[in-house]
Design goal:
With about 325 residues, the chain is an alpha+beta fold. The protein contains eight helices and 13 strands. It starts with 18 loop residues before the first helix and ends with a strand.
Length: about 325
Amino acid sequence: MDPSQVKIPPMKDLTIDNITENVHTINSQCPDPRLKYLTERLVTHLHDFARETRLSTKEWMAAIEFLTRVGKICSDVRQEFILLSDVLGLSLLVDSIDHPKPPHSTEGTVLGPFHTHEAETAPNGGTISHDPEGESCLVLCTVKDTSGSPVADATIDIWETDSKGFYDVQYADRNGPDGRAVMRSDEDGHFWFKAIVPVPYPIPHDGPVGALLKLLRRHPYRPSHMHFMFEKQGYDHLITALYLRNDPYESSDAVFGVKESLVVDLQKVSDQHIAEKYGVEMGCSLLTYNFVLVSDTEARELREKKAMEAMSALGRRMRLVEGLPVPDVD
């Protein structure tokens, strides 16, 4: 911006104690109340962190270089910044705040770094994984709203790894998408498909995030799971996953994605009628789940209620702008 077109408030003699106040002053003319509030809180917490830890120049530069490496390794098929957010627990925190769930609805979890927009549309009963070494699994699901009514024609994006724990995009010589598909629920809210039994796997740990985990003496493994993402006009966006019970990493997920309500038991097809109806063999692994979506109105009202409760607990006088809190100033 042209300096002649903006009036910058004068800064004081800068010290450790007043630098934060000065930054707030010079940022105070931002016309966007939400951006102004976010910047103010970010600067406050960053400065408090530096003062509290007595951050050294060497450590500051190490952090800058680390973030630079994170950016450099990102690509169209690898998002190291999302991975960093995941391993710090930020991804799950933001999803839980932005997509609150009333009782008995399906909880959300992390998106992860390997979702793509190239999955092919598959009909109900389709096969999403063509890994010959994978253990066949029939997946039977329903989608309902919080009143128990079926949600028809919901778009469901599904993705999982192969039997070796790799997503399709991790293979340089891949011929196209596999282990993923986009489906739609039928008029009764049902959708079903054939996949393979999920397996545990390590998140990519050959980059800066992996190096950080090693320094923290943390493992990079995720428990066995299958990703689901739901879209339907009038309903809150849902990103979730199902996790297999008794997985060795169920209680130590590297990206903090596991929630008890999303942990499921892997079953077996033991009914001949079911086997014939869905075209699988007796004894085939079976995964079932009833997903419950929250309406946009329910989610918005709950999000705003929780936001104001959180601000009140902090002793702050706030108002909502487009559903998000900003200072309520005269």
